Amino acid sequence: MLQSDKIYRFTLLFFLYLSQGIPFGFQATALPLMLRERNVPLALIGMSTLLASPWMFKFLWAPVIDMKWNRSIGRRRTWIIPLQVLLLTAIISASESIDISIYLLAVNILVMNIAAAAQDCAVDGLAVDILSENELGYGNSAQVVGYKAGMIISGGLLVWLSGFFGWSMQFVVMAVISTIPLVLVLFYREKERVEIAHKKKLQFALILHILIDSLRKESARYFILFILLYKSGEVMLDIMFKPFVLDSGFSASSTGLWIGTYGMAASILGSIAGGVLSSRQKPLKGLLYACVLRLIPLICISAVSFIKPQAYHIISISLLEHFFGGMLTTAVFAFMMFNVDRIIGATHYTLFASIEVIGKSPGAALSGFVAQRFGYSACFITGTVISALVILLLPLYKRSLV
Q: Is 76 helix (H, G, I), strand (E, B) or coil?
């Protein structure tokens, strides 16, 4: 009974995160292709990225999701169910509007992103509520793999199938897939947490007080600094590795196959491995192992920049880079959930996730300047050194807990 309950919870989380990855994958890959096929000006295609802006403002509605719920429905189901219905409705409407008006299609895609981004806060809160410490790794594997699977389905597989069945069929398949988590969550009985059982709702002032109180701890400062910086070095290599491969004489199609296809498959396997690692070890220990292993492909990329790389160099490095990158991402997300105050799970986790996203920007912006001014090798070595130094924050975090 307990085992079947665990499988149901992981399956529910997997399909909820998968349905959230569908709008983003469609937005990033399928939409530009669809618009260009209809001779939409490049300027408008570029501006279509603004349709994903709801994901940038998740932190604004996370407190609302923590504050208000219907006890008879369940704290997280109160939000997940109507938002999933809204997502499903927008997908169906998009399938009808695609041949009527590009602007009506854009409105539907915006609604899809609003529903998915808002629901992401509620699902993160649900994951925090229902996962025990030794399940965090497996739960975050469901999160990362589910989201990536959704992106692959809408941004890859369905784009390919659209060549045979048309774009409208893509939305039909997306709608069918999005029905699965709706059915699963309707039959899921959410248990009320003891610490909020006596509350009908949380006041914003209380949420803010709990959040500020948790951030005042010395361990929180090291933790936030870590999630802010752990990707800053890695992203310098990730961004510049693709142009390095092209400048080494390989074609764009080969690069896309090796990094985009083989790499994504390795990333999913790495995410699963990261979940197993974080569940079988303590979250901090699993994260430390993942950080150290992540240095292996970064060192390899730095080393190969000094030679004329062959195809097997690029393929093997890409597989290692995506595998250990996926492992680290899952380990970090499990560690983030471990540090969340479960009373304000949606708000707290969304804050950490926002900090994690912000931390990628400086390294990405700096990478091109360093590579252009000092060469690829200098860029790769700099990123590797930064990634190694960030690991030193973890022992400081552990020491501050004593």
A: coil
Q: Mind listing the pLDDT tens digit for each residue in 87-139?
A: 999 999 988 887 788 888 889 999 999 999 899 989 988 988 888 888 888 88
Do 231 and 359 touch, CB atoms closer than 8 A?
yes
Of residues 25, 261, 27, the one with CA closest to residue 154: 25
| DSSP annotation string for 127-151 | HHHH--GGGHHHHHHHHHHHHHHHH
- Please state the pTM of the whole predicted model: 0.80
CA distances from 316 to 264, 323, 324, 329, 385 (A): 13, 11, 12, 20, 22
pLDDT greater than 60 at residue 200: no
Q: Tokens in use for 183?
A: 């059915």
Can you tell me the distance from the alpha carbon of 207 to that of 200, in angstroms, rounded to the nearest whole number? 14
What's the domain range around 189? 2-202
Give the residue from 165, 186, 202 where a domain finishes.
202
Asked if residue 327 and residue 195 are part of one domain, the reply reads no
